[in-house]
Design brief:
The complex is a heterodimer. Chain A is mainly α. Chain A has helices spanning about 5-10, 15-25, 35-55, 65-80, 90-95, 95-105, 105-110, 170-185, 195-205, 220-235, 245-250, 270-275, 285-295; strands spanning about 125-130, 145-150. Chain B has 15 helices and 21 strands. The interface between A and B is large, with 93 and 91 residues.
């Protein structure tokens, strides 16, 4: 634990810390080393601040995932980023809480997506007709039948790849059901009960479009969401509910919003840019940054 | 039902959209001192807000998820999208979402436009680029271009580089560009590529990173001519010719690169913090925000545009009359708005290139070869530095132009032009966590992959990468029209992009990749690997973002271009000007053509002055 400087103590200025100090009759701010009793009080207050900071960077509980989805998805994210001897994984990061919050919000509602029809699935081949209008004669709004020979083949994850008439929450609901059905038909049991080797193999099957249980959905499209959102839950700012205690950032050596002096390290950004030797910075989160920027200056 | 409101007061100049180009028009035409004391009234209309970097960005921009995927400062797709396909026979799929890690490129929203969130990479187009068709024909024979670029549609620009040079200088001063050309032989490293610059960039370059220094030394020893990358991110405090003060870059890393962050100090040049503040101060300028332009009204007798119509945030319909109109909308929406209004001659594709007609939408090109180019990767064990965010989107690196334009002999090769080659910009152009940590393939799962991510952002893992983009050439098969199926939120058809890679890009990229590999090897890199060559039959464009450009050409020929040499629309639509969508630019040093288009906005400003001085509407000569 990095000790708090007096300046940070003042800036963070959380109510709990203040009340702890006030209850003991100590007037703050005080010089940290004025006497040992004050120092003890101050250390105690700082510990409380640190605990609060941890809580700022954590969430628990579900807004969107159903009970059966919770256990299934937990097993999936822990397959994608396992906790192992190298370090913490999706479990410690709380990736499932990140995904839950996303499914409950704009991501799940496809709020920033273009969701108008017609819905033509990518990869459709051969000649087909879709009603349109004569774009050279805009006054003619009567439908005309336009023949096409196929569609483009965008990459999985391309902006034109997702062409399903479902918002992403519904896509996940359908996808998780289809995944569990495939686990039972191909591996003989619920995903949660499979060996870790089989769990990973099953997800690879999804990427390879092996399952038929996904019906009109390409299982690779769902595998993309699972993989990508799990990594996002490991690496995005804790403010979104994942990357709890910044374990993902610590693991990858990423600094978050610590530009070199967040904890008083004394580096400036320009120096770090041209540095010739490595500097590992303890990461800081967006919430910490905002508290510091607006809390006590 | 929307309420149709009475017309707004008449303006001299109406700017459609308020990005880089409209910003120049707004400042140049509203400031009386720049127009022989004539007070031109300018109105500029944008669908988004006027971002204030202090309030809007200073505490909420360090948000990879919200900025990178949520695109919280950018053009919302439910409002308007576009459709893309590779061939004219295909059904075009609508762009439905912004995705990480593949396609995060968003169009802009509000004052400053897409330049609120770019990397600030710049570079002029040199003399060859403006005359690439005729120079290629002269040097390699007229049969060469059609042989390397099927259905070739390349044309020269109306004027030569020397005609455009003063406009470049104006634009660079307005936006505070950084670079190190000093106009003399004392800086021999840049002589080769800048003999045609009359004066220095207004600001010095950003400090070079250790990787850039290594690249510089290696490139020099191989006979190349490296110089610091030209950047639109201010390296020092600066005041431009309009008196607008500029804060310098703070190098925090949340800049360009994978996520395209807005800048919290205003160091990242765009109209909001360079030109529009000067226009606001002129007293002759009206900014209309949160208003969506949907039509130009055309007088059926004169073919002049009489007014622009837009929806305000409540859906009410406003009419803004004007004497002259400047189309500063994003590329394909520039085309769409004119098409829907009956301004210009819509391009009509034909499988026989001699049978195509029209010009509006013709010549869509790509300043990018994203992820399907030939790539070079390597490890650089002996150079330190920090690869987590520090630095900025376009400073700190060095480039060579030796492998661009016709700076090397193309005899016996199967492409023209080339690419800027550079290195040293950090991964720290932006956090890019999701981009680098995967999610786009089956390889990004499990303990083995996880192990590769440990300490990814520390120097022990520093890797080098380069994907030369090479030079895209216009063909008659790549174009913009409007979509017969999909509409925007107001019911108007969206733009449809028909585009696929041209062989010039991957042939050039293949050649260049090996040159890059040689430089990396010289740097002492290990595991230098040249990725597989693009197979044009197996890989097709699925890119739709802001590096697609063109379709609204500045040209010599009214039959194949939209704008004349003053960026004025060809007859009979005399009173609309555009910054010009950049169909023909050379090299990838101008990936989205911003620097080149920027100079054109000053050409257009001069053109508009000339037009407003005419006694009767007509074509400028």
């Amino acid at each position: 634990m990095v000790s708090q400087t007096r300046r940070e103590f003042l800036r963070l200025g959380l109510a709990a810390a203040a009340s702890a100090a006030a209850a003991s009759g100590i007037e703050i701010p005080l010089f940290a080393n004025q006497n040992s009793s004050l120092q003890t009080q101050l250390n105690s207050a700082n510990t409380q601040i640190s605990n609060l900071q941890t809580r700022v960077n954590n969430v628990v509980g579900f807004l969107s995932l159903s009970v059966s989805e919770q256990s299934l998805l937990e097993a999936i994210v822990e397959t994608i980023i396992p906790s192992d001897s190298n370090g913490p994984g999706a479990k410690e990061a709380g990736a499932i809480y990140f995904i839950d919050r996303q499914l409950a919000g704009d991501y799940g509602q496809s709020a920033n997506m273009f969701m108008d029809g017609p819905f033509v699935l990518p990869g459709q081949t051969g000649t087909f007709n879709v009603n349109g209008r004569d774009i050279y004669n805009l006054s003619n709004l009567a439908p005309v039948s336009l023949p096409y020979t196929g569609t483009p083949s965008p990459r999985v994850g391309a902006g034109t790849n997702y062409q399903y008439p479902l918002n992403l929450r519904e896509f996940w609901r359908v996808g998780l059901i289809a995944l569990q059905a495939y686990a039972n038909s191909a591996y003989g049991g619920n995903f949660e009960k499979l060996t870790s080797a089989n769990q990973l193999q099953l997800l690879l099957d999804l990427w390879a479009n092996k399952p038929t249980s996904f019906s009109n959905i390409k299982s690779s499209d769902f595998a993309y969401e699972l993989t990508f959102m799990t990594w996002a839950g490991f690496l995005m700012d804790p403010i979104y509910g994942g990357n709890q205690n910044m374990v993902g950032w610590t693991y990858t050596g990423y600094n978050g919003v610590n530009f070199g002096n967040f904890y008083g390290e004394g580096y400036d950004q320009r120096t770090l840019m041209v540095a010739t030797s490595p500097t590992r910075l303890k990461p800081a989160s967006l919430a910490q940054y905002q508290q510091k920027a607006t809390g006590g200056a | 039902m929307p309420t149709v409101l009475p017309p707004e007061p008449m303006a001299d100049v109406v700017c459609l959209g308020v990005g880089y180009m409209s910003g120049v028009i707004a400042a140049e035409l509203s400031i009386a001192a720049l127009n022989n004391q004539v007070n031109y009234k300018v109105v500029a209309i944008t669908k988004g807000p006027y971002w204030d970097y202090v309030n809007d960005f200073s505490t909420t921009k360090y948000d990879e998820w919200g900025v990178g995927l949520g695109r919280k400062y950018d053009s919302p797709l439910p409002l308007q999208s576009a459709t893309i396909r590779n061939t004219p026979q295909q059904f075009a799929l609508p762009v439905r979402r912004y995705t990480m890690p593949i396609q995060y490129h968003a169009l802009g929203h509000g004052v400053g436009g897409a330049a609120q969130h770019y990397g600030g990479t710049m570079g002029r187009q040199g003399p060859w680029g403006y005359k690439q068709k005729s120079l290629t024909d002269t040097k390699y024979g007229t049969a060469f271009l059609p042989s390397i670029n099927p259905h070739n549609d390349l044309e020269d620009w109306p004027l030569a580089y020397s005609d455009y040079e003063p406009y470049y200088v104006d634009w660079e001063r307005a936006h505070g560009l950084c670079g190190n050309y000093n106009g003399s032989t004392t800086n021999s490293s840049s002589d080769m590529n800048y003999p045609w610059m009359s004066q220095n960039y207004p600001l010095p370059p950003h400090p070079l990173t250790p990787v850039a220094q290594s690249f510089q030394t290696a490139a020099q020893s191989l006979g190349y001519h490296p110089f610091p990358h030209v950047s639109a991110l201010a390296s020092q405090p600066y005041t431009n010719q309009y008196g607008v003060p500029v804060n310098p870059c703070v190098y925090d890393g949340y800049c360009g690169g994978p996520c395209d962050y807005a800048c919290e100090t205003g160091a990242k040049a765009n109209a909001a913090y360079r030109t529009i503040p000067a226009a606001m101060k002129s007293g002759n300028f009206t900014l209309v925000v949160n208003s969506f332009i949907f039509r130009l009204n055309v007088d059926t007798t004169t073919n002049l545009i009489t007014s622009a119509m837009y929806y305000d945030a409540q859906g009410n319909i406003h009419t803004q009359p004007g004497k002259v109109f400047f189309n500063g909308l994003w590329g394909y929406n520039m085309i769409r708005t004119m098409w829907l209004s009956g301004v210009g001659v819509p391009y009509r594709w034909n499988s026989d290139p001699t049978m195509v007609s029209g010009s509006l939408g013709r010549g869509l090109t790509n300043g990018y070869l994203p992820y399907r180019g030939t790539s070079v990767s390597a490890s650089l064990p002996n150079v330190g530095g920090n690869s987590y965010p520090a630095g900025n989107g376009s400073g700190g690196s060095v480039d060579i132009y030796d492998l661009m334009d016709d700076n090397f002999d193309h005899t016996g090769l199967n492409f023209i032009g080339g690419s800027e080659i550079g290195a040293g910009g950090y991964l720290g152009g932006g956090p890019g966590n999701i981009t680098f940590a995967g999610g786009s393939s089956s390889a990004n799962m499990g303990a083995t992959f996880k192990a590769t991510q440990k300490d990814k952002y520390l120097p022990s893992k520093l890797s080098l990468g380069s994907t030369p983009f090479a030079h895209d050439l216009p063909t008659t098969d790549n174009y913009v029209d409007i979509d017969p199926h999909y509409t925007d939120a107001y019911g108007d058809p969206v733009a449809r992009l028909t585009y696929d890679w041209t062989p010039n890009t991957y042939n050039g990229a293949t050649y260049l990749a090996n040159k890059v590999a040689a430089i990396f090897t010289k740097m002492g890199a290990t595991n230098v690997t040249v990725g597989s060559t693009v197979n044009p039959g197996a890989a097709h464009n699925d890119w739709w973002g802001h590096h697609l450009r063109g379709g609204c050409r500045i040209g010599i020929n009214a039959a194949s271009s939209v704008w004349n040499k003053w960026n004025q629309c060809w007859a009979p639509y005399f009173n609309i000007f555009g910054a010009g969508e950049i169909t023909n630019t050379s090299g990838d040093n101008v990936p989205s053509g911003t620097h080149v288009a920027g100079a054109q906005s000053y050409v257009a400003a001069d053109g508009i002055r000339k037009y407003l001085a005419l006694t009767a509407p007509g074509q400028l000569t």
